[in-house]
Specification:
single chain, 224 residues, mainly alpha, 3-stranded antiparallel sheet, 5% strand
């Protein structure tokens, strides 16, 4: 047994209780929403300009997504990664010049649809982080930036003997891209697209591929 005295045990117990009290983030109901799916839902609204109520059923309930959007935006969450992403990309934390033409690619930003200016500003930051994350993913993967008027990069040689392995090779070759189920089916020569989509959904539940939206798939994120 330990040689600690009763007084020393009392001190250690007090310190342990203080640490445990700090670890309690919040009280109430446990988290029921997938935060990654919630983040993808916010990016989906920003990218395609739909109403919050029109979110596909693959995402969490639109009320929850909108509540998280307000909460995270008020805390300044989308602004914080922007400077860090610029540093990781080898640039200054604060830009010295700006061209915002690419914002029109995000349909929610084509016009000011929001009732409050701060909500529109928050969506600009969400779009910025999304755009910079995609660019950084390409740079870390050693892929040259794709020109606007150039064709897509060539597909890799699919050497895997099974269908799942070929899908994983395609996703890994272009990790910045969101693949549609029908696109993958066309490349693999699969005629029964509906059955193949069911298979893709099963692989996503099993943790082989990442479902980033309705019928949109990508590679599983690598842990750092």
């Amino acid at each position: 047994m330990s040689d600690l005295t009763d007084a020393e045990w009392t001190v250690l117990e007090g310190e342990a209780r203080a640490v445990m009290a700090e670890l309690v983030a919040a009280t109430g109901r446990p988290m029921v929403h997938d935060l990654r799916a919630t983040l993808d839902a916010i990016n989906y609204v920003t990218r395609y300009g739909i109403e919050w109520r029109a979110l596909p059923v693959d995402f969490p309930a639109h009320q929850a997504v909108y509540a998280f959007f307000l909460r995270w935006s008020r805390r300044g969450l989308p602004e914080q990664p922007a400077g860090r992403l610029r540093v990781l990309a080898g640039r200054c934390e604060l830009p010295t010049a700006g061209t915002f033409a690419w914002l029109t690619r995000y349909r929610r930003l084509v016009r000011i649809y929001e009732r409050k200016p701060e909500h529109h500003e928050a969506l600009i930051w969400w779009a910025t982080v999304n755009q910079m994350t995609r660019r950084l993913t390409r740079e870390l993967a050693g892929q040259s930036p794709q020109g606007r008027w150039t064709g897509p990069p060539p597909l890799p040689a699919l050497t895997s003997p099974d269908r799942r392995g070929k899908v994983l090779q395609l996703l890994a070759a272009q990790p910045w891209r969101a693949w549609r189920g029908n696109e993958l089916a066309a490349i693999l020569g699969i005629e029964n697209v509906n059955s193949f989509r069911v298979q893709l959904s099963q692989w996503s539940h099993q943790g082989y591929i990442n479902k980033i939206g309705p019928a949109l798939y990508g590679p599983m994120p690598t842990s750092t």
